[in-house]
């Protein structure tokens, strides 16, 4: 199969005991194709490779064909481990990972706070004070103040430890921040704690499951995320929570290449959004018609329908609901759109989307590894607009 796709030279290189990526210009070969060649050189089938990664064969196939982008260093590192290579062999000499991932010294403090959940220090604040603190923390999250949150989350976990609702909400917030910063495994733990803390409060547990589904999707466990979100959606009568779970399930289906379920689930979410009668958001879901439209755009891109994703993006940013989305949500969507523009060979618009995201919520671009990776690709792929190059230089992404 490899020879048929890429010519007899691929087979010839493998027969000499060296993968093709070492025999021609490294950076001229797409990353997915390099993965395919190195996998074949190791004598692994797609299924065997997928099993070792804990992914589906469909996921591997999409990566190798370039339908799915490898934009998380943690995933690239896992692939390199399976292939028994240094990650730099995959990334190439011009794309070293240290420049695309900022340090987050607060992660270790959050990890320590999660580890001591059975031995919380005695609370020094009242329940009312703790409630005010968690409300402020959610507002900080919606404005993408991630470095600030990393500094406050450990104390917040301790402060809310005696109140079930507040602690569950804090665990969920912690999971959300950790997903943003590419620590999905730790986010999964925080989300699981949120569900356990919620106990028999069905709506609280369903709300916590939103974070669990996000973490599972970030880890590539799309089918599990889908079934988990759907099971939780059946347990709550709160339309905003149920609708958000349908969005998570729909995005998980898209990540798994399940087109029919993707559209059905997002349609269910849209029906719930259309009948909303209140703008209040007590569960911090950001759910509504605009959230459904951003999810449809992302899902289309995940399914390989990049042109449709960009058309939906253009529609949602012109809609009235766009400005009502939290800055974090808008900036995150712009980052997703930047990837879609880059996949459609339009680096200029990709760069502009990142600039718009940076103006909307700077930490989305400056602290999230996925955004920094995108910015690195843009500036290293050729001449970039002055503002884009300046942003990359500010973040230390150029040499």
Question: What report would you give on this structure?
Answer:
This is Transcriptional regulator. Pfam families: HTH_31 (PF13560). It comes from Micromonospora gifhornensis. This protein is mainly alpha-helical and 399 residues long. Among the domains are: 94 residues, 434 Repressor (Amino-terminal Domain); 95 residues, no CATH class. The protein contains 23 helices and no strands. Helix 11 packs parallel to helix 13, helix 15 runs antiparallel to helix 16 and helix 19 runs antiparallel to helix 20. The radius of gyration is 22 Å and the shape is globular.
Précis, in short:
By secondary structure, the protein is mostly helical.
The total of helices stands at 23
Give a count of the beta strands, DSSP E runs of length 2 or more: 0
* End-to-end separation: 39 Å
Strand content: under 5%
Low-confidence segments? 1-28, 93-100
Class from secondary-structure proportions: mainly alpha
Average pLDDT, rounded to a whole number, is: 85
Radius of gyration (CA) equals: 22 Å
Largest sheet: none
* Shape type: globular
What is the chain-wise order of helices and strands? HHHHHHHHHHHHHHHHHHHHHHH
| Helical proportion, percent range | 55-70%
Labels describing this entry:
Cro/C1-type_HTH, 399 residues, Transcriptional regulator, mainly alpha, 434 Repressor (Amino-terminal Domain), globular, single chain, disordered N terminus, Lambda_DNA-bd_dom_sf
């Amino acid at each position: 199969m490899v020879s048929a796709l890429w010519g007899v030279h691929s087979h010839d290189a493998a027969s000499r005991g060296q993968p093709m990526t070492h025999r021609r210009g490294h950076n001229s070969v797409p990353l997915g194709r390099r993965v395919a060649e190195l996998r074949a050189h190791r004598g692994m089938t797609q299924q065997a490779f997928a099993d070792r990664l804990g992914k589906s064969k469909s996921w591997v196939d999409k990566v190798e064909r370039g339908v799915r982008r490898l934009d998380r260093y943690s995933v690239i590192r896992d692939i390199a481990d399976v292939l028994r290579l240094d990650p730099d062999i995959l990334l190439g000499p011009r794309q070293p990972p240290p420049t695309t991932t900022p340090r987050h010294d607060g992660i270790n403090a959050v990890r320590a706070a999660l580890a001591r959940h059975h031995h919380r220090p005695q609370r020094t604040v009242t329940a009312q004070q703790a409630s005010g603190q968690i409300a402020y923390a959610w507002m900080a999250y919606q404005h993408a103040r991630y470095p600030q949150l990393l500094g406050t989350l450990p104390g917040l976990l301790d402060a809310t430890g005696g109140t079930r609702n507040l602690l569950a909400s804090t665990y969920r917030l912690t999971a959300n921040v950790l997903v943003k910063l590419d620590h999905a495994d730790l986010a999964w733990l925080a989300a699981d704690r949120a569900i356990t803390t919620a106990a028999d409060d069905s709506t609280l547990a369903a709300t916590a499951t939103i974070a669990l589904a996000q973490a599972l999707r970030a880890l590539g466990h799309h089918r599990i995320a889908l079934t988990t979100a759907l099971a939780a959606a059946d347990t709550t009568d709160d339309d905003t929570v149920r609708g958000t779970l349908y969005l998570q399930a729909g995005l998980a289906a898209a990540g798994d290449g399940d087109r029919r379920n993707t559209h059905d689930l997002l349609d269910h979410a849209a029906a719930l959004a259309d009948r909303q009668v209140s703008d209040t958001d007590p569960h911090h879901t950001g759910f509504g018609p605009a959230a459904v439209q951003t999810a449809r755009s992302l899902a289309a891109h995940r399914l390989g329908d990049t042109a449709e994703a960009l058309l939906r993006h253009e529609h949602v940013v012109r809609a009235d609901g766009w400005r009502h989305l939290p800055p974090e949500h808008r900036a995150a969507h712009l980052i997703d759109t930047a990837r879609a523009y880059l996949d459609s060979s339009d680096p200029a618009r990709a760069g502009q989307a990142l600039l718009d995201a940076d103006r909307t919520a700077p930490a989305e671009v400056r602290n999230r590894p996925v955004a920094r990776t995108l910015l690195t690709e843009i500036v290293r792929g050729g001449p970039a607009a002055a503002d884009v190059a300046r942003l990359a230089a500010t973040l230390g992404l150029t040499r």
